[in-house]
Amino acid sequence: MKAFVITLKDNEYSNEVADRCIASAANFGLIVEKFYGVDREQAKQFMYNEGLEWTWANNDTEEMICEKTGLRMHPYGSTDIRAKIGCSMSHYTLWKKCIALNEPILILEHDSVFLRELPKDVEFYGICQINDPSGATRKGGQWSKQMKIRGTIGVHPKTWITTKNERHIPDGLAGNSAYLIKPWAAQELIDKFYEIGVWPNDATMCQQLFPYLEEYYPFITKPIQGKSTTTT
């Protein structure tokens, strides 16, 4: 399976941790290729050139409910929205690559570190998370613990981390840190951007909108983040 790690070309930290990701994958016989993503300076124009627009939380100014999905959107505060757009566009570009290749691929964020070999026979439906959720998202530690307690090896439906009273909050993959994706699912994600607008990619790729999301255990990767590239 082809694997790509999203890297910010002119960002020294991003290149350093992407190299770490590539080296850790090589320890388990997997070749990971650097994929230069969309940086914050180019993000908005890139998005506009694709005929897309950012519709999350009224340009990050207020908490609101999306009329099309019924999901809650909230401002990110200290986050540089240009960087959030760039992150979403980087994943979007790899979704397009998945479709062009017409085969499943592995998408990694640069702070991913491999813990073990990626099995060659992973049978997943459309999108499958392979990273440890701990440190990747809110309630990530709790989510990780639930998966460890379950303990069963293989692919499972994604764990809900929201309660039944919180199902208006997008419940996505853990930071979109590392996931397998098939071309038809990549097309559904792209179509969703055109339907509802561009959101943070882990809010778009949520259980409410894509109920077939899955997760793999034991964890193949974990995120080890020294600093964020989406904050000011």
UniProtKB/TrEMBL annotation:
**Residues in domain Glycosyl transferase family?**
83-204
Q: Name one Pfam family in it.
A: Glyco_transf_25
Q: Which InterPro entries match?
A: Glyco_trans_25
Q: What is this protein's record name?
A: Glycosyl transferase family 25 domain-containing protein
